[in-house]
Amino acid sequence: MDPQAYAPENSDERLIWCAITGTYLFWLLGAMYVVAPVIAWVLLLRLIKRLLLKQQTYVISNTQLFWIAAMMLMLLALVVAHLTEGLGLAKLVKSSIGWAKGWALLAIFPLIGSLNIRPQIIYRAACIVCKHTLILLPIFVLAWILKLPSTLYTSPLSIIGGPGPEFFSVSLYELDPGSGVPRWRLFTPWAPALGMMGNLFFIFATQEQSKRFRFYGFSGSLCMILLSQSRLALVCYVLLIGFFMFIRWHRSPWLYFAASPALLLLGLTGYSVLEKVEQSIDAFKNARAGSTRVRQELANIALERWANEAVVWGHGIVERGPHLVEYMPIGSHHTWYGLLFVKGIVGAIALASAMIVTLISLLRYIFSNAISAVAIAIILQIFLYTFGENLEILAYLFWPGLVIVGIALKQNKSASNTN
Fold first, then answer.
1. Which residues pair with 154 in a beta bridge?
2. Do the Cβ atoms of 84 and 313 come closer than 8 Å?
3. Residue 295 and residue 347: Cα distance in Å, rounded?
4. Predicted model pTM
5. What are the CA-CA distances from residue 82 to residues 78, 206, 288 (Å)?
6. CB distance 297 to 325 below 8 Å
7. Which one of 38, 98, 239, 273 is most buried, by most CB atoms within 10 A?
């Protein structure tokens, strides 16, 4: 493909391109947490301006609008919970700003997919970030070998407020508190989040047309996953490989010839296989027993307090946990428990329904439209990470995936209108 095909053709593409390819520059400035919300709201205002003042038309699917309704329901739950719990106006304003920088992005970026943004721009930009990762990797490893300070500095931008200083700090490496083994988080706030981005960039790399940049994408994304030492990232990586293999060879009779005896063998040895799976799961958990224990205790506290104190609308805000969970916020490390605790059953239903509707909308075109398969992979990855991360906190990182989902929904809407 002509290299010029990857040059941004309009201001929207240019903004997306610079935001992704400038990842490490923004990381050095401690501005990663700031960039995504700014881009989201700027492009949203542009879209509204063009619709209202310039009478431009954009293809917007019902699913994109459903995401907006779901995230507005999140805001309603936030307001009602603050009023019910008597948290005061100051906390309501602060939480609303947090919603605008978190949950709102899950609706805005898919809507931005309706702008004139080509998916290959995002694929190539992600592969460039992977290339930068490979170039900088020796520096990060040497920093650990030479025992340099793990965190160089925290950006002054932290004054604007955020989930924590780690979102604005420049870290070369970190040591696992349980084992003392080095882990790297690079441009993310913690190592498992790097694993999440590695998987997202792997999805993008599968669609890259250039062999050279595809190599950068595959190599760089795998390095991110390995450097993060995240168990969830490894599981997600294997599942994504299986997903794209199935998409590529689903028409091949050899796939079914190979699957039939494999399934028969699995049926004959099912009990022993289940035992091995259980042993693997136990070993998987014991690999970081301390982390597993804290996560489980956080989940137990979140569920107990949600069920007994605020079932419908939640508590409105996160609360610091006890010493038992190392003072981590209640409901952290898990989207669903966090939603139930903060926004109640209303918030959980809002997110779950949006994800289900999106998956159903995309499944119809999974084999006929390549970007639909990519969007499904992204939704499946995001769903998998709801069990290990809080989505709203990391939306500022995986937003390019949300734009791809929006582009897929737009293309499917156009295809259905044509038919």
1. 169
2. yes
3. 21
4. 0.90
5. 6, 44, 36
6. yes
7. 98
